[in-house]
Structure formats: structure tokens, C-alpha cells
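pasting input
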Amino acid sequence: MKGDQQKRRFPPLEADTVPRLLRTRTQQYPDKIFMRRKHLGIWQAHTFSEVYEKVKNICLGLLALGLQEGETVAIIGENELETFWSEYAAFCGCAKVVCLYPDTTPDELHYVLDNSETVMVVAEDQEQVDKTLDIRHRLERLRKVIFWDPRGMWSYHDSLLMDLAEVQEKGKRYGEQHPGLFEQKVDSGKKTDIAVLSYTSGTSGNPKGVIMDHNFLLDNAMRLHANLPLKKFSPYLSYLSPAWATEQFFGVGLGLLLPFELNFPEEPETILANIRELGAGLLVFGPRQWESLASTVQSHMLDAGPLRRFIYNLGLKVGYKVAAARTERKSVNAFWYVAYPFAEQFVLKSLRDNLGLKYCYLPISGGSAMAPDVFRFFHAMGIKLRNAYGASEAGMFTTHMGDKFDLETLGTWYKSHPDIGPPFEWRVTKEGELQVRGGAGFQGYYRDPEKTREALDEGWFKTGDAVRMTDDGQLIYLDRVKDLRELSNGYRFPPQFIETRLRFSPFIKDAIILGDKEKPYVSALINIDSENTGRWAEKNNIAYATFPDLSQNKQVRELVRGELYRVNQMLDPGSRVKSFINLPKELDPDEAELTRTRKLRRGFLEEKYGEMIGNIYEGVNEFKTEIPVKYQDGRTGVVRADVFVNLIETNHSGD
Amino acid sequence: MEPGQEKKDIALYVEGIYLSFGGIRVLNDISFHVQEGEILSIIGPNGAGKTSLLNCLSGFYKPERGSVVFNDRDITKLPIHRRAKLGMARTFQGIQLYPGMSVLSNILTGRHVAMKTNFLQAFIHWPWVHREEIKHRRIVEEIIDFLEIESIRDNIVGELGYGLRKLVDLGRALALRPKILIMDEPMAGMNMEEKEDMARFILDIEEFLSIPIILVEHDMEVVMDISDRIVVLDFGNLVAQGKPDEIRKNPVVIKAYLGEEDEQDPLSYKAWDKPIEDGDKNEG
């Protein structure tokens, strides 16, 4: 009886593989717009039947080129129509897909292509093709490199290369010679076929290829579909790279299941303008993008005149009060409710409009944890931003649902479709680690049984996330279990928790929190935000020449000290940051200091800046340092700077 | 080479050009030619007469003697806008854009010579005027796509950085659908990354549009990398022309740059310091 009731909440499963779902949707809505991309300044639309035709031709083209069942196709490029077409086409050909970030380095690319046994690469442009050709001699399985933007490659004559347009032509002819082959392929796919290998960003060691079969993709798409208030044919802007599991669930899976109108930005740089043109209804960004949206607003307001700033602050203050009343159930004076319509009319509405979020009914932050301050800021503007929490290996876990929720908690658990697998469950171990099982379940890492075994605990998937349960049974995310750190006095503190809260400052781009068993207290390496801090310095008539110069400026150090002091107030005394250094050089993914998703590579950083860290704890006040840097074109150099160690008094204001 | 065959392959002839300002002879009997689909660089110390030569080609200056033949037509006496109509486009050393207009409008001005609508028709906006506008807008959008400047399409040119303005300037030149492109120091004042981008665009233009490009540029590394042939000027005289490797080894060129023969590579950055002073003195 209970099972029946649960089933009723879920829409029926119309197909058990992605290709069959694509066919069903095309039969249902042949003339509805499925995908759109801005090209030559105009949004060019493609209906379901047009997309189906493209996917069919690409698929047949790949088959004509000899793609076999179960082989791997790699796709590397920005989010464009062709990225999605190629992915669906490979699915239809019963092949598996691995998507890569466009800024993957040749070495990373080689590792993934080799590990995933890739036989064909679909690359966006010259940049990606060159990268692939550079490493071809180390890839014996590679048989074809297909590209869709021929610019700059007019004189490339390599038998390995082929234009995607030519592949489609080939596919069309192949389809005429083999009628019914495509449909047969779509029919023959099984739900347990591997669909995607999603390589985890690898904050430690080599990336691991998480296996996702069709069942898993659809399970997660269905979790979102059944648990979120979604509207059919909402315009969705595909921005997160499909190399990230989140976009596989939202764009590739849910986009087809619901379906959405999938929109692709003209260029990654035009994203803000594109959001506004589209009036996107659903937006999934990583915390970094939301944080940068928030600091865009703040830095624009720094430039505004005093009157505008006054009105903005006033409006936002009202927004904050009312949002707190709504989400956190705080009791608020009736005055704010009276003031709210005015704030809405004169400030908040225009803010939303300028950000392009006027019609956005479901803004979601996925990936890693985001500071509650950022959430509060968006809620104050009337944008009901919520966090989606999950893991590549086990899918989507939780989201804040409804109007009322505690920002510090993880939110409500998703339920899995009963036809897909056992119910989705979770538990918290004694060590405070969150573990999950159920749904389509974790299917292991590709060609790595040992790591797969390590990730499981009696059938439960170990998320590696440290959580704390509140008195009313809600979960609060603290940090990664392995990242919770113990000081020499035995006190355990959450470094990432502090880092995310520091990052909300417009003047701080990144923060590395230090402290372990050999260190008696917490300290920080700060990467200041050169743009905002530079602007602040200009406004305050502070002269500086270079980034090292700016970072070590006395007033800038005072400014950062103030920011740290503010964050310290949110922490219990044992976790407070007692000293910090402003890094004289910006952290850079090209130097492997950050991952491509801009997560800190802690081990590497602590080694690289070991001398600096040693000086902090030895009580040195000022020292000279040299940091090797690598430029984008491969040249190397050295940044030399005089660096200051700054102390923060914990009892009174840092000044 | 047969004379007939040679003619077909050559886009622009310059024959015996003389130009002087008052008593100063700026160009002295300059002759060279530009072949179809090649990148020809004109180099020389400051004050050697490079920009003056470009101005003679594009019609800003009228040479006292000599002729310029473009696609078998003598254009020595033609005014600038007629040369533009023939397909001669140019970018400028100091950027000459409309700073108060958007990037899109600036590039659209490059289509002006091809527009048939007059002021009154544009005001009434007949359907055919509308169609013409769409046609030109499409060409402009293709250029924006080619130069990858979508994100600044609607920005006002006055608020853009120097490197981007240079790209817009190039975009406007391309909007003419040129048959030859003349670029005056396209990379001056750019940083390393912008220079690399610009060099790639120049090569792409040559390859994709297969039009000849005449380039005046100070960055020797770039010139040596992307040019098919090089013409060297010194004090208004043409002292050498040939392939980059030949120019690098040419003793006359080395002398022109250093004043004397030296072990040092004459075309390195350092070598430029001295001739710049010489040039300034000469002009003053």
C-alpha cells in the first residue's frame, strides 16, 4: 500500500535508456523547440525532430567510421549544440561517453583518454584538436578525431581528422545503405550499458572515472523531476561543463526527461548577457559562479554614486530582514513587511532584472559548499537560491525545498523512482561520515576495482563528507572527513568552512587555511582579489605597481585583517584565524595550484608555500621570498617579494 | 617566370615612388610588388618612411612620381574612397575608430561603401532598406564571430582596452570585404597574449580569405614568424627585400639597423634602440 502511494508521486518511467527517451520525446513533441544557440547574434532554434535527425546522422556517421558497441567516445569543448548532439549520438550507437573540460591540459587529456580507452575524440576547435594531435602517438586506440569548428584548420591534412559536417554526410549515406540500422541500435541498448564515465576532478591523486549507466542517469534525472517544482519547456541555460556530473544530470538527463528548452551561450564570456536575454527559468551554477555574480553586484555598487548606494543599501536591508523572516522563521517587526513592497519596486526588482534573474524560478548551486552569506545575499534580492548536494558516484542527495529552510543545513533528501532500484537511504557513521545506498547505486570506478572497494562500506557508498546532525534531525555539512584537521592541542576544526566564508569578501579570491597536528593555532594564506582590491586601492589613492606590491601594501593588509576579523566572529575561539599572509602571487590552475573547478590542491600548495608557512609559525614578521611561476605560453619566471606576516587580535578589532 | 603568368599572380605593383615633404625626401624610388595570398612585411627603423609608404598605397598621400597598380588598374591618382570600393582596406597605427559608438556600429561603418540606401530612405525605412540592413548586419556578425569579439558586441568602443580596439579596427577593415589588407603596426602596445591572438587572426585572414596582407610591424619576432616576404626601408630607400631568412642574414639590413656589422642578431628587440634615435634626429 505504502509502495503504491510512493509510486503515485512519481511520473511513469517512459523509457529505460537515454536514446529511447530521446525517441519518445521526439514522437511526442516533434515541432517543439528543444535546443537553441546564439549564433551570429541571433538565437537559432532546433526542434526535437531536427535534433533527432542530427543525432541520427552523427550516430550513423560514427558507426560508418567503425565505432563498436561499448567503445568510448571522448567529447571536449565548451557547452554547444554539437557537444550534446555528439553525446546523444554516441549513446544511440551503444557507445559510452567521456566529457572533458575545454581547458584540460595535454597531460590530463592523455590520462583520461588512455584510462577510458577512447577510440574517437569529438573536439570543438583547433585548440582541442592540436592538444589531441600532440598526444596521439601515446594513444594506440585512437582512430578518429572529429571537430566541428574548422577555423584555423583549413590547411590541416591529417587522415585522423574529420569535420563533423562530413561525419553527418557520411552518416546520411550510411543510413540510406542500411535502412533501420539506427532504430535497431536504439532498440538494442540496455539500461545497464555504461553511458558516461565522469572523471572526478581529483583534488588528490589521478582522477577516477565514475561509471554511470543509463539507469543511473535516468535515476538522477527522475530524482530531480519528481522532487523539484519544475515547469515543462522552461528555458535552461547550459553552462556547467558536461564533464561535471551535475550537468549530466540536469542538462543531458533532466533536459530530455522533463523536457527543457536547452540553451547554449554564444561564448562563455557572454553568459551574463545571455542569461538576461533568455530570462532563464532554471539556472544551475557552481558556487564560484554564484559568488562571482554576488561580487559583480557588490563591485558595481562600489562604483555607483552615493545616492544610488544609499538607496541600494536601504532596499537590500529590507530584503535581508524579510528574507530572514521567510527562510529562517525569525520574527521580524511588521515595519519591514510594510517597507518591503517599496524595496521590491525600487531596488530588488531592478537588481534581479539586471542580473537576468527576473524569470528564474529555480536557481540552484551545485558542487561544493557555498557560504550562507552568499545565499542570504541572493535571498535578500528575492532570488530563492538553493543548494543541491550530491556526489558523482551516487548522484543527487538533497536540496532545500519549499520556502522555509535553514541555510546551514543540507535540506530535504531526494527520493528515487521505485522502478529504478531499492529506496535511496542514508546514514551517518560514528566518525561523522555520511554514507548512502539505493537508487541505481554506485557502480564503481572504471578499471579500478581497488578504489571501488575502498569507496564502499558493506554496500554503503562512503561520501567522505563530515556532517553533524542537529537536534531536529537535520544535517549540517562541515567539511570532507579527511579535511577536518586537528591542531597540536587536539582541537578539530573545519578549514573549508572558514575558507568558503572568507571567499565571500569581495577583496578575497581564495583562502588557504592552515593548521595541523604540528601547529598550535589556525592561520591563513590569502589570495586577494586583484580586481576589487585594485579598485578599492585606486579609490583610496593607494599607489601600487604590481600584484605583489598591492598584496603587501599596509592598507590592503589592514583591509584583509578586517575581513578575517569579521569571519572570526562566526567561529568558536579554538578555530579562529590568528595570523595571515597575503600571497604575493595569484593562485592559478595552470600551475596545478587549483583544480579546473577552482578547488584548492591543498597538499601541493602546502608544499609549494612550505617556507612561507614555516615563517608564520616561527613568528617571523617580515621575510623575502621567491615563487616560481609558469606563464600560459609555457615560459617560466620568478616572483620576488617582501612578505609580511600579519597578526589578528582576537579580543578587539584588528585596527 | 612568364610575364603573363606573373601578372596574374601579383595583386599590387609599386613602381618608382618618390615622396618628399618640403626639403626632406621621404620615399626615394621605391619599387616592389605584392603577390596574391602572401603576407608582405615592411620593416625599417623609425622615420624610414614605412607609414608614408602605406599612406601612398592607401591614398592619403599622393606620390610626386611613380605609380601604384592594383589588380591591373593604375590607382595612383584615385581618391581614398574609390580605393576602398576597389577592395583596399587598411587599419591604423593610432586607432581611428568612433569612440562614442558601439563595436557593432563601428564595424558596420566598414560596410558604408557598399550601402545603397541614402539618408532619406533610411529615415523612412522601406522594406528593401530593412533587407539591406539585415544583409550587412549578417556580414558584420560573421566578422564578429571570426574575431571572437561577441562579448563586446554592444560595448562602446571608447571604454574598451587598447588590444580590443585594435581588433575592432581590424574588424572594420574586414567589413569592406577587402581584396588587399594594409595593416599599420597592428601589434604596437599589445601584451604577449594579445600579440599571439593578433598573429593568429592575421594568418587566419590570409588562409581563409586568401587575400594579400601588407604589414608594418615593429615586433621582429612576429614579423619573422608570419611573413612570407619582407621589404626593408632605410632613410626612404628600399635596401633589401626577400624571404625572412634572407633578410635576417642580409649585411645591408644589419648595417641599417646597427650602423655597423655586429655579432648580435640584428633583428632582436635590443637592436631597435639605436635606430630609433637616429630616425628621430633625421626627422627633426
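fyi The interface with chain A takes residues 137-138, 141-142, 144-146, 148, 150-151, 153-154, 192-193, 196, 200, 203-204, 207-208 of chain B (CB under 8 Å).
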